[in-house]
Amino acid sequence: MAMQNTVQLLGKITEILNDDKTKFKLSIKKNDTKFVYPVIKLSKQMEYLKNTLEIGKTILLEGKIFVEQENYTYICPCCNKLNETSFHRTTILATKAFIVTTEDKEPYLNKILLIGSLCSNPQLKYIPGKFSQIPNAKYQIATKRICEGTDFPWIVTFARQAEEDMKRLKTSSQVMVDGAILTRPFKKKFQCEHCKKEHNIEDTTTEIHGLKIEYLNNCNFDEFDNIQSKSIFQKLKEFLAN
Length: 242
Ligand SMILES: [Zn+2]
Hints:
InterPro entries: NA-bd_OB-fold, Primosome_PriB/ssb. This protein is mainly β and about 240 residues long.
């Protein structure tokens, strides 16, 4: 499988997330009103930067999408007992990072390039838009790490790109995703292992907004193939019939 997993981000540090200061939240402008807040983790070779990280500083980084298992503990509001669980969190592993100074109040860069294969068929739903319902496709891809292992990030696409994805993609289709990091509030469902009651826990989920999808291997090209294979004579006949 071809490998490509590159993330380039520029944003402001809004929160340091762990005691050894290697994990932090970045605020990146998405459009005029929205911001996204991806979680960044410094790679081993970048750990020397940790003592210079401060809330409000601007950081430029290059890295890769990294889906890691995160342990989580919560106290059940019904029975007050402790629950331990774990889930997958999509983070960015920074392999190069620089603290930068800029006059720009809201500098931003949010670029991702990924190659991967779909783990299952894409799913479509419609979300409310300004004037009408907008198609929204969602699919998980497997993308290989350079050294070892595989990551499974989620891709989301909208409008025409979503419609096209639904036509072209299926399980095991290989795609190149040119996109951006997207984060949104998300309610996680947990069931208490002691009293069995279910609770919603507020969290943030990180996905990749596919701005442009290139269809590589094992995609549906039926329509395209049909047009190609039609003889000139047949095309002419159709043209005259119309
Ligand atoms: Zn409970």
